[in-house]
Amino acid sequence: MPYILLKRARGYELTNNLTQAKDIWRILIKKYPASFVSAEAYYQLGKYESKYWDVGIIKFPQHPKIQELIYKRLEEDPKQFELLISLARHAIYDKKANNVRNYLVNNYTEQLLPQDWETIGNGYWETREYDKASFAYLKAKKSPHNLYRLARGQELEFNQKKTKKIFETYKKILVNFPDSSEALLSLKRLIILSPPEIALNYLDQVMQKSDVDIPESLLHKAKLLQKLNRTNEADKIYKLLIFKYPHHKSTATYRWQIVKKAVNKKDFLKAKEWAKSIFIDNTDSPIAPKAGFWLGKWEKKLGNFQESRLVFQNVIKNHPQSYYAWRSAIQLGWNVGDFNNLRQIFPLISQPTLRPTPPAGSEIFKTLYRLGQDNDALLLFKAETNQNYDFSVKQGFTDALLKLTHGKNLQSINQIWNLQNKNNFSEKQEWKNLRKEDQYWRALFPLPFYQSITNWAKHYKLNPLLIMSVMRQESRFENSSESPVGATGIMQVMPITGEWISNQMNIKHYHLNDLNDNIFLGVWYLDYTHKKYNNNSLLAVASYNAGPNNVSNWVKQYKTQDPDLFVEEIPFKETKNYVKSVFSNYWNYLRIYDQETYLRLKQYK
Q1: Which of 282, 422, 524, 552 is least crowded, fewest Cβ atoms below 10 Å from its Cβ?
Q2: Are the beta carbons of 183 and 174 closer than 8 angstroms?
Q3: What pLDDT sits at residue 389?
């Protein structure tokens, strides 16, 4: 194995046996000439003989260690076009390479070829420099890919001065590349950007081009017609949607509109029937678990206890990761903590002792990852994927696993979450298969800083998974996070709140940016909101987001004994979503790491 040779050479180097170290590096290069591990041998040998660096730059320009060399050479002399363009091509995801791209754009405009501009545009795009990407794509080959990113980049930068050009570029794709996938994407952007009357025409074009998009387009069209007060036409389209596409998620959206109207009129029989149609016919819709849960509640309210129990069981079986699976489990009497007793529970957490095998990368990489050789694994995986303009689902997940090992929790969690947004069918299926794996959920709901959290949880007698769930929602475990309004750190503590807590506790010195201080302040405040509301975790968590004054007003305003109804009546959309997200986090942590819950859910599979 090449890494054994690399480590052996490193051992000799550390003991000052340089002759033997060099010999082993040379053996490595000779025995494994195409292996990315050899790039590190070139890097090490180059410290003593610079000719090896020259060869390494030519053979392995995508390897991070070789890219370090290129950066150093450019620092000494930036006017080296071949090195500049090499980094632009091979460091697609590296934000630091944007300085190189900037230098190329500012100093080599005449020398750059259309394919070079496309490469530069791709780099800017992947590092979210959309305005600069648009400028580069303007000079690249006029392909549908480049034209779409040109227009979309300007749109993402909210460049209102270029609105007319954005429209023109999207339309140019429709005329010159009518059968491309970008033509369909362009139509969808034009629908969003256009007034309703014009958008209707674009919706018709989408339906002509793509059968898959017909249901969603019909729903959108009906909503636009309603805006234009063309109610009769809208009703016909809604009926067509239900008749032709009863199982599509767009139909579920329309059905849920009817459910809400029926509930407002206290017509629970009608609400129950329409919710049932969603739960049965639209199982893939994100609305399905919500519809199922309320269907179960209404069945129970009407005295249909057996039907109610079956519905709750099916919510758990078909949507085990959802907030409503937790609410259903409580209705079935599971010991998983409810709003009124959750803080006192201290779950027994079980974590795997061995790392799982990542789904992407070479066998050498997978071995390094499983052995916990995280730096070596990261270098190798970057070398293997640096030229990819778009990660596959498996590559994206593997990259996210590596980010977790290096403390980039926010990036990792968001990257895993966004895997569901892949467009083509095979990648969608790949994502669905990945979701069946335990390692997917453990990565999406990791346990960083767990020991520190557990210590504070014991001190304040708070459920550690609830603290973890608040933390995940607040910052995705990123202690450097700071919100636009000044909330800081891993628990997103406001400076004024931190000052108030320090006065209450007579603390003279604390730093919101200090990880332990931030956890302490956040846990103290969560304990405070629990005490304020008689240990009701629903009201405590809502207070953490919206403040105690708002929550106290809502308690007076919505005099309901049903906590599920209270959640739905929270007037702040952000707080309503926050509450559901935090307790969804809690449920997922419980079902992943609590053995009793994990095994019970296994039976439902």
Answers
A1: 552
A2: yes
A3: 67
As to burial, measured by CB atoms within 10 angstroms (0-12 exposed, 13-18 middle, 19+ buried), residue 132 is buried
Q: How many helices (H) and strands (E) does the chain have?
A: 35, 0
Indicate whether this model's pTM tops 0.90.
yes
Cα–Cα distance between 23 and 567 in angstroms, integer? 68
Q: Which positions ≥6 away from 241 have C-beta within 8 Å?
A: 215, 218, 219, 222, 248, 250, 251, 254
CA distances from 337 to 318, 328, 343, 351, 601 (A): 21, 12, 8, 21, 16
Three-class DSSP labels, 489-513: CCCCECHHHHHHHHHHHCCCCCCCC
In this prediction, residue 469 carries a pLDDT of 99
Query: pLDDT tens across 170-190, in order?
Result: 999 999 999 999 999 999 999
Quote the pLDDT of residue 163.
84
Stretches where the chain sits below pLDDT 50 are none
Q: Which of 597, 531, 81, 97 is nearest to 343 (CA)?
A: 531
Where do the H-state alpha helices sit in 91-143?
98-107, 114-126, 130-139
Q: How far apart are CA 305 and CA 508, in angstroms?
A: 57
Instruction: Report helix, strand or coil for 482.
Output: strand
Q: Output b/e per residue, 96-126; b: 16+ Cβ within 10 A.
A: ebbebbebbbeeeeeebeeebbbbbbbbbbb
What tokens appear for 526 in the block? 């969560």
What size, in residues, is the chain? 605
What is the pLDDT, as a whole number, of residue 1? 79
Instruction: Write down the residue that tokens 């849960």 correspond to.
Output: 293
389 is written with which tokens? Answer: 């303009």
Residue at 60: amino acid letter: F
pLDDT at position 194, please? 95
Point out the residues that are catalytic. Answer: 474
Cβ contact 383:64 at 8 Å: yes
* Residue extents of the structural domains in the chain: 363-444, 450-604
Tokens coding 571: 């007037």
pLDDT reported for residue 423:
77
Q: Are 446 and 413 in contact, with CB atoms under 8 Å apart?
A: yes
CATH 1.10.530.10 fits 450-604, yes or no: yes
Q: Are 530 and 501 in contact (CB under 8 A)?
A: no
- The pLDDT assigned to 422 comes to 86
pLDDT for residue 111: 96
Chain-centre distance of CA 394, in angstroms?
15
